[in-house]
Design goal:
Largest sheet: 7 strands, mixed
CATH superfamily of the largest domain: P-loop containing nucleotide triphosphate hydrolases
CATH topology of the largest domain: Rossmann fold
Structural class: alpha/beta
Shape: elongated
Number of domains: 5
Distance between the termini: 96 Å
Strand order of the largest sheet: 13-23-24-25-21-26-27
Radius of gyration: 37 Å
Oligomer: single chain
Number of strands: 27
Strand content: 15-25%
Amino acid sequence: MGKKVTPLMGQYNSIKAKYPDALLLFRVGDFYETFGEDAVKAAGILNITLTARNNGGDMTELAGFPHHSLNTYLPKLVMAGCRVAICDQLEDPKQTKKIVKRGVTELVTPGVALNDDILQSKSNNFLAAVHLGGSRIGVSFLDVSTGEFLTSEGDAEYVDKLLQNFKPSEVLFSKQKRRLFSETFGDNFHTFYLEDWVFQTDYAVETLQKQFGTTSLKGFGIDTLENGVIAAGAALHYLGETRHDKLGHITKVNRIAEDAYVWMDKFTIRNLELYHSTQENAVTLLEVIDKTISPMGGRLLKRWLALPLKDSEAIIKRHEVVSFLLDNQDVLEKFQQHIKHMGDLERLVSKAATGKINPREVVQLKNSLEAVVPVKALASDSKNESLRLIGEQLNACDELREKVKATLFEEAPVNILKGQAIANGVSEELDELRSIATGGKDYLDAMLKRESERTGITSLKIASNNVFGYYIEVRNTHKDKVPEEWVRKQTLVSAERYITEELKEYEAKILGAEEKILILEQQLFVNLLEWLQQFIGTIQHTASLIARLDCLSSFAVQAREHSYTRPLLDDSFDLDIKEGRHPVIEQQLPPDAPFIANDVFLDRDNQQIIMITGPNMSGKSAILRQTALIVLLAQMGSFVPAGAVRMGCVDKIFTRVGASDNISMGESTFMVEMNETASILNNISERSLVLLDEIGRGTSTYDGISIAWAISEFLHEHPSRAKTLFATHYHELNEMTETFERIKNYNVSVKEMKDTVLFLRKLVPGGSHHSFGIHVAKMAGMPVQVLHKANKILKRLEKSHASEELTDEMRNMSKEEMQLSFFKLDDPLLEELREEILDIDIDTLTPVEALMKLNEIKRMLQRNASTKSKK
């Protein structure tokens, strides 16, 4: 015989069975309770007390918190990756003698949240859906908090790049494709699996058409993206599953046009540290350039950085606006001043559409639209065409502002149940009820006067308490004058308290009025929200224009504060940077340390590949990165940190910067490096910009030189003639200029002192023939005996001229054929050393083991030296 379960737990179990994957917050009275495994999980995440209760003979874990603390605890659960089902009481406990009816009113997941405490103001909270349809993969991104909805499709590399760019909080895909998703995109996302039937073309098309009220998807330009449409349909389906049925703010779906934006693979996005960094405390490009002052602008700037433009006309229009704002500082300051007074229009209107907006936020929406009025006037009167166009399209929704102003008090509360939200004069009935509820003092004063005269008791007092409501208090000295119809309720030391029929009737009237006021205010507020729905699309469009204006103003402020210049775009393939600076590094330097600017010139005819040599720490990597960042900023529409820039649009940027280990995934540094480089060589085009840093250093010197040489040769001979910067510490590559006409040598200059070296960080023509590695080791504090030994070995190796023979051999090979080769060494000791070093697994070596291995190599050299001396 089964154990008896209490009716409450029976109800809980049946609701929990419908949401097995979610943590269920179960409303019981004034608390949200969790039970069993959910309670253990919640107690751990929220740091709340875990208790237990008897449930039909079994002990069940229990953890809860007060219902009014939901906004404090919910974000913590969602940020920990939980799906949270909120189960509320669906009827008033006073109205029923049975168990209160309950049901899930909302399912909040990492990707589906409208709560301000979960969302970051300057970041989108995207829910992504991926349809693994074969060679073409569909992907969609939906932010329910702003109504933005995007879709695209492409190969695995393209979709992977988009997932890196948009950083979704949650990714949906078919339950049957779990393994395939993990193999293709890794395991770094919060994921949720949907049934396979959701990913069907017909169902997706029907879901989208129903949402947008259309009979076709052609108007959105996505009708040919079958996989993208399926992904978009799956995302929309999921909103229904999570109890989000009011979605009037999702009015369209936009296609991410692959060919409209600069291609950057995920390695490049990571290497350039555009908006994320794997390094702790590293400053990203976004942090440096973001001078936006509205949440909408902050989110759009992030999008512009992820998707720089390729269309020079569109880029030039952005440059023209920035130029105009710089020339008209008063206009720029006024724009920013007014934008500062706007709330998050996109998220406010989304809350209005979903019915999650409170009275104070509706007033904030009205005030934000009021700040649009002067912005519209300023933009419309502008001499810049793009600004005038923005001004013409801005809509401050006059009718909406008037209605909200007339309907709500300016100081409306956050909670409609607190009352005093609806303004006077909106409803006659409400005004009458308020006069009853608040006009009681006059009534009571009149009653007090009348009863005093009738009874002759001059010290009568009328008051109320929570026990028996309104009462009349009589001092003991006048007890004998109390009329018979008064009912005694309480005896005090010096007085007695009575109630009368008239007082009871009046009290019922007041209490009834207060209850009716609350119901009526709620109804009037709901009516206002329904009326507001017609303005959703208009406000969204206005918000997007304000975001655009905010981004362009941000570019102007950045240009003014940090002396950025306007880049000149033309139809050539050239990249001509004069006095370029690194936008992030220059702002991190102390005030007394000026940034050393550098020129870079690349074209397809004379100087296609620049080979940059120079010691470690001299600034080779900074020059590579700053070149990419200057191009990126220019094609976002921003001015750039340089004296002058003339360039043709770049369509792809590839970087291979630094050795980014991926040991955690079982890949060596060298393997990662080769994967990334292969991706570059297989995708270059005539407008590509390729930046390679220290290719080949993850393997032995001779392997490394061979691979670096072969890669450079491939890039030179490839029909695309892609513009390339190649930083290397292999000085042997300087010899390539003798064979390949479009390869030019440059080095980052240094000044040798007696015992040290001074890094000048200036890029100058010609190759460098020293690496100064031992100087760098000295600066790092390496022990003197190690430095002394290293110098001795260096001199000995320099005498052997092995590298000169090597480059001669490579030059000869290049003339015959383009292939990779590995070189044999004549010195048996060097061969032995090479094998010894190659066999070392550096990824698992401890510092102590490294020292022991170094000692072993030293003994080999000593043995060899003593053998030679005996001979």
